[in-house]
Amino acid sequence: MNTRTILPRLGVLAATVALMSACSGGMTEDQPAPEGGQPAAEQTEDGAMASDDGGESSDDAAMDPAANLVGAGCEDYAAMVPDGAGSVEGMAQDPVSVAASNNPMLTTLTSAVSGELNPDVNLADTLDGDEFTVFAPVDDAFAAVPEADLSALAADSDALSGVLTYHVVPGQLSPDEVAGTHTTVQGEELEVTGEGDDLMVDGAAVICGGVTTQNATVYLIDTVLMPPSMAEQG
Known about the structure:
This is Fasciclin. One of its GO terms (cellular component) is extracellular space. GO terms for molecular function: cell adhesion molecule binding. Residues 1-28 form the signal peptide. Residues 25-64 are annotated as: Disordered. There is one protein chain. The protein is an alpha+beta fold and 234 residues long. It has a domain at 73-232: FAS1 domain, CATH 2.30.180. Helix content is 35%, strand content 17%. It contains eleven helices and nine strands. The longest helix has 17 residues, at 10-26. The radius of gyration is 23 Å and the shape is globular. The chain starts with 9 loop residues before the first helix and ends with a helix.
């Protein structure tokens, strides 16, 4: 083929336990409350300040699926899918294969992993059965592959399975820990370089990454990746 690129919550509980322990050892029943009758701010183990006045805590912010997104295309993604099952918030509610199927930018990938392209290659249950990091080529990435090459790939069960699993890494890697060399489910390694909005995966640009699902962290990429061994054959 003539291309290299074809296919948090225990924090609140911990802080509360730490605070109760500190109170039992450092205060007595006769110790007065702070002047003014207002509750004092409480400092957690990580230095974050929490209060009893109903203010938003750092853990509340961490529950926002959009809090840790990276990539120059995240705004465009949000504009295209502002809400619903295919949005960033919506994808967080479902297993990765279901979440991807709801994303209008991932229709070709969904067809490939669900057995629609080749009935002998259905990876949906596998992808939903453990924690993964998924580098997901968007539809435009598949459109850039010559039609003859894509058709040949779809007809070859082993090759298609190999290409698809090369896009999957065991375990969930957040944007601040994804850089580096990782062994894929396919068995060969891929390399993630850069940081923030400039992340690259084997030379493919991350459009929007850190998108969470029930069991996976997804990075939308602009190119279909190819395992090194298959690139050599092509």
